[in-house]
Amino acid sequence: MNLRTIPPAPAPPAGPDVRGPGPDGPRARRLPAATLLLAVVLAALLPVLDLARTPAPAPADAPATAFSAARAQEHVERVAAAPRPVGSAAHDRVRDDLLRELRKLGLEPVVHRGVGFDTTSGAAMAAPVENVEATLPGEAPTGRVLLVAHYDSVETGPGATDDGHGVASLLETARALRAGPAPRNDVTFLFTDGEELGMIGAHAYTDAGLLGDPDRTVVLNLEGRGSEGRVVMFETGAHSAGLVPALADRVPVTTSLAYEVYRLLPNNTDFSVFREAGATGMNFATIDGSANYDNPTDDLAHASEASLQDMGDTALAATRTLGAADIPAIRKDGAATYFTVGGTLVRYPAALVLPLAGAALAACAAATLFAARRRRVRPRAILTCAATVPVPLLAAAAVGWTGWYLIGLLRPDLTGFGFGDTYRSELTGGGLASLTAAAVWTWAAVVRRGRGALELGAAVTGWLTLLTLLTAVFLPGASYLFLWPALAGAAGLALGARLAEDSPWRAPCSALAAVPAAALLAPVALLLFRTVGLALVLVPLVLLVLPVLAAVAPFTGRTHGRRLALRAGLAALVAVTVTAAGVARDGVDAHHPAQVSLLYTVDDGGRARWVSNGRGAHDWADAHVPDGPRALEDEFPELRDPVEWRTGTAPRATVATPTLKVLSTRPTSGGREVTMLLGAENGTAAQLMLYADTRAAKVGRATVGGRTLPGGDNRISADGRWTWGFLHAAPPADGVRITLRISGEDPLELRLLARSPGFPAGTLAGDKPDDVTWAARSSGYTLAAKAFTI
Asked: Out of 55, 493, 640, 716, which could bridge 367 as a Cys pair, Cβ 3.0 to 4.6 Å?
């Protein structure tokens, strides 16, 4: 017998490790994952903490060349003593105070008076404006730095931060610059008027040619959208590569994503007008605490002196840098990608965005191919994981939408905030973020069944790479958010594939993208949360999904059935409890009053009614409007949003009532030209609002004060009638003369509204309680309407 040795069967090829160092894994395998988790937390925490790190206010005896919030606060107290809309006595007092302060600094202020117009969108607007301007001459100017803040406010609020902080910052900056050596370039301080009406003062300034050569002008605009927190540089002109370096000496919170988002929104500031006129520059604002925006709580009690210091330090440092720069050279630079990480300003040319996106794609493809060849990942498993990534994204959106919907049902008083940002929303937002994280972890635990951590990490890296490419093409300023996590994810995938199969560091390598993702996306998510509030919390929640997705791979093991359901349910319960605690904490008191909508209206028949848009709730306010819902646009064309309003009978009182007198009618080719005088009787109107029913006849154009205004349909109307409009704020005592060019011979139906601040004396049902205030929109004023046919 011939005996032969039978060799052992060959070992099967190595495949991906699908075990993962889950909670049941050896301690040696859990430690690297815990280390990575700590790194992720620190990466997210440090930049987020920078968003809340406002400087201590400098005292009044700070060095003369430094910005002092204590000195600037004296200006805020005078400016924000009362609401100062255009045409009010408080407005004129602040104007005169500005002239005195500028003269005390040795400057020679001038007042540019005229009638400003805004015809950019919606009903045409006109108002008398008085822009205040003073210039600090430069020694050898290459151009000028134009610092801008508006000194008017809304009717219902004193505007301590919008834009009292901006006005005070300009005055204190002027004083600090005068205390030091003269700058190279001219520095002009411009206090615009009528910003709240539609940037009327800025339009008047540029229409009069006062901007000068835009190639030799850099604009720094200071705004206020919130009452506290860090100042944010949220918008630049077309030459950000030449502008952003001016922030290096005092770095604000900034990101090129903010500009990409802002340009997609219907919001505008004075800077928008200067940018459209060809100037470049930067736009600054505080945004935290927007619950106090455009309402009575934008007062001294709610305004942060630390935020004032931050705005002043930033404006002064940027002005000194640009004051010494070659301004025409700035326009030779292109766009840049820029962002702050933990107080450090990072920037690189926008021309690198597409090449870097291409590099991320190459790195992702190379790392995936390398890992597949080493049999550490399976392409089919990666594709399966990637195909399900939209699930947690949709879950985050559902958490945000459902959360706000339920909050509105349980706490209708929280729906009255104009931007959905309540006074104390942090804990509520944290609870919703925790619920989102629990949903992502549950998704990862299900997807990890039969798949390795590297495969899950590769799928997330693939999505990050796809987002890098898409944003590089369509939103280049946002591409950095996904670029660096994508590159880190590719590096982690390649590194993990090189490690031995039993290495405890293999799984953590799959989540390497989580470190830059947390550092970049977490602070942006918080910034967006402060911008959009709870009403649109789904936006930052969706953004938070990405760093959580990148981090979960090492922390999900083979958890099945009841254990998975138990853990997911427990995590969800904790998150819901935190959310509920946040909602309960966000209560109403004298310092955090409920914000409600309430208007006093008098219709064409003389009937007085209280009306409310129904957003926000308080027993005292609700008692005024027990009836409804009711559509009011036909009687009051201004009241088109929402379509239906709550109403209630109001005591009849004498209010400013609109008047219209036809001065002349002249036939024209295809129609007629009608000249009218608009005015008010029984009182002074803060605004006159003229609306035309364009279904039968059309307004071809209008002429006011020698200015031709466009006709056609310049506004949206829910009922399809009042599609052309014209508004005049602070109308002259002798009325507003307007000429309409009307096509056709059919009668033209008109509605004229007179708007007055406040309510007639004695009409409210008792004094307004301390724990209720007027909301930012559709509240705190009187409307009287009259119908006319010409």
From this structure: 493
Residue labelled with tokens 């702050």: 340
What interhelical angle do 69-79 and 164-178 show, nearest 10? 130
* pTM greater than the 0.90 cutoff: yes
Give me the half-sphere count of Cα atoms (radius 13 Å) on the Cβ side of residue 85: 21
User: Quick one: which of 263, 428, 534, 415 has its CA closest to 776?
Assistant: 415
452 touches 384 (CB < 8 A):
no
CA pair distance 318, 282, nearest whole angstrom: 10
Instruction: Please say if the pLDDT value at position 11 is more than 70.
Output: no
Tell how many helices (H) and how many strands (E) occur in the chain. Answer: 21, 25
Residue ranges of alpha helices (H) inside 376-425 are: 379-387, 390-410
For CA atoms 90, 96, 100, 106, the dihedral sign is positive
Write the single-letter amino acid at 645: W
For 207, phi then psi, to 5°, come to: -65, -30
pLDDT tens-place string over residues 452-511 = 899 999 999 999 999 999 999 999 999 999 999 999 999 999 999 999 888 888 888 999
Cis status of the peptide bond prior to 642, with omega within 30 of 0: yes
Rounded CA separation 329/315 (Å) = 21
The residue-averaged pLDDT of 151-168 equals 97
Asked whether 363 and 351 are in contact (CB, 8 A), the reply is no
Place of tokens 């990666």: 382
pLDDT, mean over the chain? 92
Element (H, E) at 709: strand 707-710
**Strand 671-681 relative to strand 657-668, pairing:** antiparallel
Nearest in space to 411 (alpha carbons), one of 595, 583, 536: 583
What pLDDT was estimated at residue 48?
84
For residue 623, what are its two tokens?
Answer: 């008692």
